[in-house]
C-alpha cells in the first residue's frame, strides 16, 4: 500500500484526494490547506482526512476556526511516497525544493510548465515515460481532452495534421471573481495558442495547431477539431473506435445531450461524486469525414477529466503497475468511469 499526500486542496486537489481514497492499492495520508475555510472543515470533519497546514504561520487561524490539524506541510511530505501537487500554477517551483529535500516523488498539474519536470503525463499516450520517474506533470484539462481523443484515433486514422478551436469556460463554478461575464475573449489572442505544443509533450510527433477563446460559462470547455487524414477510414469506423475507448463517450445530441448543460445534468443522473464527468463526451452527430478531413466536436469537464490521469500517474511513478491498460481499468472500476 503506497502513501499519497495532496498538497493544495482546491478544485483539483479535493477530487484527487477522493479518487485516491477510492483505490485499494494506495492510501491517502493527508491533504494540505492554506486557509481554514469550509473545505478544510469538511475535509476533516466529514471525510476524516488528516489536514496539514500549507503556511505554518497560519496555525492560529486553524485553531481559532476549531479545525483539527495534524502538522504542517513538511510533516505530511515526509510521510508520503508521492505528493500530488495541486497548488495553483507557478507555486510548483518552490515546492519542488521541498520535495527534493525530503526525497519524495511529486506529480504536478497543468498550470505548471512542462520544463519544471521535463516530463508530462497522459494515461493513454505516454504512461511508460513516467514509469519510475521522480517528477512528472499531468497535462491540463484541455490538453488531456485533446489527447484523450487524438490518441484514440492516432493509431488507426492516418493523421496528417490537426487544427482545433477551443471554446474555454471563463472560470470554474465556484470562482466568483473571474470572468468574462459578457464577452467573448480570444485567449490567448496569439495564434496558435500554447495548447498545441502542450499536446506534443504527451503525444509525440503529432502536428496540432490550436486557437482558443474564453466565454461566459463555468460548466465545461468545448473543442472543435478539424483533422486532415490520409487513409480511407469511414465515419462509422471512427465512431466505432471512439465508442470502444474508455474515458471517451460518444453522446447523441438527439438524445437530450446537445449542450454542456445537459452533459452536466447527465453526470448528476449517473450519481457521480461531485457531479463529475471524467469522460470526454464527443457528439456523434458532429463526427464526419468530408473529403480528406475528419471533423468532430467534444466537451471537457475541466474540473474532473484529469483526476483519473493523476491516479494512473501515481501507479506509473511508484512502479505499482507496468501496464497502462491495467492501471486505467483499475482506476475506472474504482471510480465508476465508463
Ligand atoms: P484552486 O485554486 O481551486 O486550488 C488550489 C488550492 O491550493 C487552494 O485551496 C489554495 O488555497 C491552495 N494553495 C495555494 N497556495 C498553496 C501553498 N503554497 N501550499 C498549499 N496549498 C496552497 O486551483 P485548481 O483549479 O485546483 O488548480 C490547481 C492546479 O490544477 C493548477 O495547476 C491548475 O492549472 C490545474 N488544473 C486546474 C483545472 C481547473 O479547471 N480548475 C483543470 C486541470 C488542471
Task: Outline the structure in words.
Helix content is 32%, strand content 24%. It is an alpha/beta fold. It folds into 2 domains: 2-139 and 306-335, Rossmann fold (3-Layer(aba) Sandwich), CATH 3.40.50; 141-300, Dihydrodipicolinate Reductase, domain 2. The strands form 3 sheets. An 8-stranded parallel β-sheet has the order 4-3-2-1-5-6-8-7, sandwiched between helices. A 6-stranded mixed β-sheet has the order 10-11-9-12-16-15. A two-stranded parallel sheet has the order 13-14. The chain is globular. The mean pLDDT is 97. It binds nicotinamide-adenine-dinucleotide. The site of nicotinamide-adenine-dinucleotide has 26 residues, from helix 1.
Topology readout:
Blueprint: E1 2-7, H1 11-21, E2 26-33, H2 38-45, E3 51-53, H3 59-64, E4 71-72, H4 73-79, E5 82-85, H5 92-101, E6 105-108, H6 114-117, E7 120-121, E8 135-138, H7 141-153, E9 159-169, E10 185-186, H8 195-200, E11 208-215, E12 221-229, H9 235-244, E13 248-251, H10 260-269, E14 280-283, E15 288-290, E16 293-300, H11 307-317, H12 324-335
Parallel strand pairs: 1-2, 1-5, 2-3, 3-4, 5-6, 6-8, 7-8, 9-11, 13-14
Antiparallel strand pairs: 9-12, 10-11, 12-16, 15-16
Helix pairs in contact: 1-11, 11-12
Amino acid at each position: 500500500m503506497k502513501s499519497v499526500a495532496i498538497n493544495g486542496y482546491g478544485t483539483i486537489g479535493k477530487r484527487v484526494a477522493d479518487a485516491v481514497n477510492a483505490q485499494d492499492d494506495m492510501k491517502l495520508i493527508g491533504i494540505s490547506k492554506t486557509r481554514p475555510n469550509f473545505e478544510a472543515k469538511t475535509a476533516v470533519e466529514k471525510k476524516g482526512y488528516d489536514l496539514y497546514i500549507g503556511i505554518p504561520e497560519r496555525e492560529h487561524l486553524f485553531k481559532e476556526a476549531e479545525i483539527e490539524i495534524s502538522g504542517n506541510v513538511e510533516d505530511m511530505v515526509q510521510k508520503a511516497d508521492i505528493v500530488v501537487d495541486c497548488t495553483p500554477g507557478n507555486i510548483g517551483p518552490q515546492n519542488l525544493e521541498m520535495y527534493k529535500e525530503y526525497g519524495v516523488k511529486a506529480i504536478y498539474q497543468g498550470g505548471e510548465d512542462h520544463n519544471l519536470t521535463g516530463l508530462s503525463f497522459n494515461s493513454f499516450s505516454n504512461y511508460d515515460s513516467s514509469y519510475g520517474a521522480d517528477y512528472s506533470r499531468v497535462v491540463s484539462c484541455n490538453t488531456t481532452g485533446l489527447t484523450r481523443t487524438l490518441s484514440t484515433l492516432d493509431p488507426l486514422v492516418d493523421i496528417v495534421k490537426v487544427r482545433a478551436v477551443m471554446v474555454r469556460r471563463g472560470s470554474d463554478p465556484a470562482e466568483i471573481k473571474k470572468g468574462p461575464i459578457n464577452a467573448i475573449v480570444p485567449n490567448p489572442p496569439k495564434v496558435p495558442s500554447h495548447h498545441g505544443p502542450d499536446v506534443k509533450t504527451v503525444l509525440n510527433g503529432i502536428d496540432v495547431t490550436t486557437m482558443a477563446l474564453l466565454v461566459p460559462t463555468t460548466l465545461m470547455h468545448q473543442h472543435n477539431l478539424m483533422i486532415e487524414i490520409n487513409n480511407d477510414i469511414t465515419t462509422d469506423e471512427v465512431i466505432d473506435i471512439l465508442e470502444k475507448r474508455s474515458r471517451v463517450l460518444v453522446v447523441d445530441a438527439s438524445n437530450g445531450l446537445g449542450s454542456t448543460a445537459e452533459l452536466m445534468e447527465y453526470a448528476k443522473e449517473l450519481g457521480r461524486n461531485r457531479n463529475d464527468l471524467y469522460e470526454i463526451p464527443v457528439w456523434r452527430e458532429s463526427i464526419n469525414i468530408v473529403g480528406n478531413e475528419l471533423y468532430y466536436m467534444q466537451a471537457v469537464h475541466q474540473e474532473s477529466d484529469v483526476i483519473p490521469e493523476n491516479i494512473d500517474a501515481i501507479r506509473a511513478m511508484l512502479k505499482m503497475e507496468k501496464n497502462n491498460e491495467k492501471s486505467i481499468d483499475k482506476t475506472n472500476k474504482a471510480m465508476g468511469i465508463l
